[in-house]
Amino acid sequence: MPHGHWNTLGNMLVEITEATHDVLLDIAYATSNNFTGAPVYTRSACYLHPDAVECLDRAIDLAGRQGLKLKLFDAFRPSEAQWKLWNFRPDPEFLADPRRGSPHSRGVAIDLNLVDRDGTELDMGTGFDAFTPLSHHGSTEVSAEAQRNRLILMGLMTTAGWDFYRNEWWHYQLFNARARYPVLSDTVLPAPMM
């Protein structure tokens, strides 16, 4: 890849930190606390495309007005990581086929939950990355409190400009992500995550 091209792509992603964006970060794929049972990333980091950062900032503001904070589990996911996840569990109900490309690998998707003033995650009825129908947005098989919390998250996120994925209460992405943004690899980052 020509150096100038790398700079262009590298400038497409903004690092999200707890200090710069007033969020909590718990990057699941940098730990063994994910469905693979092992770290996928060698470095815990959170990046988003500037268009997604605008929507994130709006969501942070809306959540703050409700006494809530966003806790991010994943954002930009290098295409190499998407292949690792797919090769571990090729489940199109919960994972984007890397041949099509995930919105995460375009820097325009986030996985998250809400936390209260004490930093306690709101009960959503399942954990992040629970590959079960209970994770679907419309599931009425989870408690009324979990359903209400999912609707609060959806309300904040969609008001801030995000689209939701119906099978995962934790996943939000920009509209028309596949048509508007290229798939990016680990090489666009200032320091590798893989």
Automatic annotation (TrEMBL):
Needed cofactors = Zn(2+)
Describe cofactor binding as the record notes it.
Answer: Binds 1 zinc ion per subunit.
Q: What is its EC number?
A: 3.4.13.22
Name the CDD domains on file.
Answer: D-Ala-D-Ala_dipeptidase_Aad
Per the record, what are the reactions this protein catalyses?
A: D-alanyl-D-alanine + H2O = 2 D-alanine
Q: Which GO molecular function terms does the record list?
A: D-Ala-D-Ala dipeptidase activity; metallopeptidase activity; zinc ion binding
Instruction: Kindly list the positions annotated as binding Zn(2+).
Output: H104, D111, H171
Active site located where?
E168
Q: A single GO BP annotation from the record?
A: cell wall organization
According to UniProt, residues marked as the site described as Transition state stabilizer are: R77
Ordered alphabetically, the record's keywords are:
Cell wall biogenesis/degradation, Dipeptidase, Hydrolase, Metal-binding, Metalloprotease, Protease, Zinc
Superkingdom of the source species: Bacteria
Task: Kindly indicate whether the keyword Zinc belongs to this entry.
Answer: yes
PANTHER family, sorted: D-ALANYL-D-ALANINE DIPEPTIDASE
What functional role does this protein have?
Catalyzes hydrolysis of the D-alanyl-D-alanine dipeptide.
Q: What does the sequence similarity comment in the record state about its family?
A: Belongs to the peptidase M15D family.
Protein name from the UniProt record: D-alanyl-D-alanine dipeptidase
